[in-house]
């Protein structure tokens, strides 16, 4: 199993439930684990019944498990505070206000969010880092950023020497981190990308498009999990049999088009909520696919 595991897919397919169940399973096995959500609409706090913030917090009642949220607004404010704090001690308020206005663009928000993402990847205190990601398009952009920013710094160094958030010289250390992140994402011994989908046309089509996009980024260690499959011993019931007949062709199509391992998670009769249910899902997940 790799140190970094990303769960991604279309909204509503069960990414948060499966990533949470996996993190609980790892922590229960004694591994200090960080579960990070990059989804602004994540319900990770509801899953564990506690607030999730920009800093890692230990999950109550689950030793070894910590949760954290990468929120663009909070990340931007934290970034501004770190950058402007030293200036406030030296320069007049008007100068600081001008500097803050220059940091209010989308460029700064993007790099602030990205810095948080990189910081999570370089957490030495955790044996495993599990990412519950935003719907696919947002995640692809996040994963493109290490390469994009490293290239932007290189090009800026050959030109004006300035990026949208400061001089190239000031970002030299950041570039090294970005390059390390790219290598980790592309290394199949360090990163696994888990596509969560449901046995239906729209989420599977989106997933298969994302497979190609990730391959362009040279992120090749990919696994698919089909979530919500009608269990075999339930397919005799008329309602369940009809649903299974709709699911089966999509599963067969995925098997013919996806080259990596595929795991199948059952449709549960109850909502995946509460520690007992997360532990059950974690055991099923471990059986369904070896990450």
Helix amount: 40-55%
Largest sheet: 8 strands, mixed
Number of helices: 10
- In angstroms, what separates the terminal alpha carbons? 5 Å
Number of strands: 10
β-sheet strand percentage: 15-25%
Order of helices and strands: EHEHEEHHHEHEEHEHEHEH
Class from secondary-structure proportions = alpha/beta
Low-confidence stretches: none
Radius of gyration: 21 Å
How would you state the average pLDDT, rounded? 86
Shape: elongated
Strand order of the largest sheet: 3-4-2-5-1-8-9-10
Summarize the structure.
52% of the residues lie in helices and 16% in strands.
Properties at a glance:
alpha/beta, 10 helices, two-stranded antiparallel sheet, about 290 residues, about 15% strand
């Amino acid at each position: 199993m790799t140190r970094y595991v990303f769960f991604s897919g279309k909204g509503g397919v069960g990414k948060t439930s499966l990533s949470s169940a996996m993190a609980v399973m790892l922590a229960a096995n004694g591994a200090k684990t960080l579960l990070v959500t990059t989804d602004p609409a994540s319900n990770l706090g509801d899953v564990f019944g506690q607030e999730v913030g920009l800093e890692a917090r230990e999950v109550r009642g689950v030793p070894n498990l910590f949760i954290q949220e990468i929120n663009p607004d909070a990340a931007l404010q934290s970034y501004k505070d770190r950058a402007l704090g030293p200036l406030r001690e030296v320069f007049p308020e008007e100068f600081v206000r001008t500097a803050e206005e220059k940091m209010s663009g989308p460029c700064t928000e993007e790099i602030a969010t990205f810095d948080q993402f990189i910081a999570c990847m370089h957490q030495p205190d955790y044996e495993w880092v599990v990412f519950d990601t935003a719907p696919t398009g947002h995640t692809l952009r996040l994963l493109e950023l290490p390469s994009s920013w490293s290239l932007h710094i290189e090009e800026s160094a050959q030109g004006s020497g300035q990026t949208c958030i400061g001089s190239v010289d000031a970002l030299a250390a950041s570039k090294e981190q970005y390059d390390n992140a790219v290598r980790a994402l592309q290394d199949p011994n360090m990163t696994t990308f888990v596509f969560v989908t449901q046995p239906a046309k729209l989420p599977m089509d989106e997933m298969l498009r994302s497979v190609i996009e990730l391959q362009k980024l040279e992120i090749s260690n990919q696994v698919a999990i089909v979530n919500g499959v009608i269990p075999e011993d339930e397919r005799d019931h008329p309602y369940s049999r009809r649903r299974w007949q709709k699911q089966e062709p999509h599963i067969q199509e995925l098997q013919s088009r996806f080259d990596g391992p595929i795991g199948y998670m059952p449709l549960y009769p109850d909502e995946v909520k509460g520690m007992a249910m997360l532990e059950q899902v974690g055991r099923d997940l471990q059986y369904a696919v070896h990450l």
